[in-house]
Amino acid sequence: MPRPPLPLGTWGKIARVQLGEGRWAARVRFRDVDGRTRKVEAHGKTGAAAERALLLSLRGRTSADDANGVTGDLRLSRLCALWFAELEGEMRVKPQTLDRYRGIINHSIVPALGELRVRELSVSVTDRFLKAYAARSPAQAQSVKQVLGQIMGLAVRHDAIAINPVRNVGRLRTTKRTIRALDQAELEAVRVAVRAWRAGEGADGRRPLGPRPSGDLADIIDVAVGTGLRINEILAIRWCDVDLDGPRPTLTVTGTLVQLKDAGIVRQDSTKSTAGLRTLFLPGFAVDVLRRRRAKAPGNGLDAVFATRNGTWVSAHNVRRQWRAIRDEAGLDWVTPHAFRKTVATIIEREFTSKGAAAQLGHASEAITENYYVVKNLEAPDFTRVLDRLRPAGHDARITTLCCV
């Protein structure tokens, strides 16, 4: 019966041979990654030195097809670095996504798991880590799971482990946020609060503490309510994206602002997804806002509709900070810039369809719009006239009809 072949990347018994005075060779049969068994030899002044040189050579050959040396003994912190470098080199992920992944690795994964060897990250270890993380931060846990799963996928692809442990962890704790949209009275309260703050009047008639908001804030809110755009999409609008003089004024969404670690605020000339590239028809009040700004606002080198006094892009962080100061004073603490987007989605879904709401918001899937943006209508359609046909014999139908009008 023939001897079974060596496993890939392994070798047999090392033989030492003295070649002369102070000259030794160490030889072994090694099964390479292509399946062929080859003789490998190294030299040294002593037999031990030759064997050490041979072992060093063999270890290099086991990762000859993988210059990064992804093995089960690799520390997870190093695997994270290799995965991130690979992702960065592919140039298929947006810079802001890379920044987010880097933050998850540096602040969540490496501090907790970085010293473990890849083979030590079992399903049970992974499960405990993710569930403990979800208990502290359920909103972030899914993102951590996603990134860790991709990192361990690199180890699987290089045969460092056989199974990705992230795939077999239990269900993580999640928090289902209640979707809330503004009604007409609440929306008017928002506008009143912004005007009062701009005029220097708090709820008690005095100037509240905190930063005074830019006069742009009221316009930003009206554009948000008139379009359903994300805050960074609004701040990225250029005059070349707007047609205010046609029979039906429009706004074409062509990009968004992003905050990059090394570059600061830049305009990204692409939308969050392909569905995000769209042309929207503008309601009258939004057209009025933009026409007024076009007539009065000074020009800037960015062609930006909203720009700072220095002609740079407006920071979404500053807009949110200003709005937080206003809403807390006015008792509107639940209203975020994203609430305006949900308000637009809800009113369009009520009057038209969820498909229309998804198209307005730039979602690729109606399910995203329905699950995260539209307030569920708890009132069923009025079927009382049909149901009245099932009334008992002798029941006065007129009474039913009157009570159901």
Within CATH, the superfamily of the largest domain carries the name Intergrase catalytic core
Query: Number of folding domains?
Result: 3
How far apart the termini lie comes to: 92 Å
**What is the total tally of β strands?**
8
**What is the approximate shape?**
elongated
CATH architecture of the largest domain: Orthogonal Bundle
**How many helical elements?**
15
The whole-number mean of residue pLDDT values reads 88
Helix percent reads: 40-55%
Sheet/helix structural class:
mainly alpha
Main sheet overview: 3 strands, antiparallel
Textual characterization of the structure:
- With 405 residues, this protein is mostly helical.
- The chain is 46% helix and 11% strand.
- The chain contains 15 helices and eight strands.
- It has helices at 47-62, 76-90, 95-113, 123-136, 138-157, 184-198, 216-227, 231-235, 284-296, 316-330, 337-351, 354-361, 366-372, 384-387, 397-403; strands at 15-20, 23-31, 37-44, 242-243, 250-253, 256-260, 264-268, 278-281.
- Strands 1-2-3 form a three-stranded antiparallel β-sheet.
- Helix 11 (337-351) packs antiparallel against helix 12.
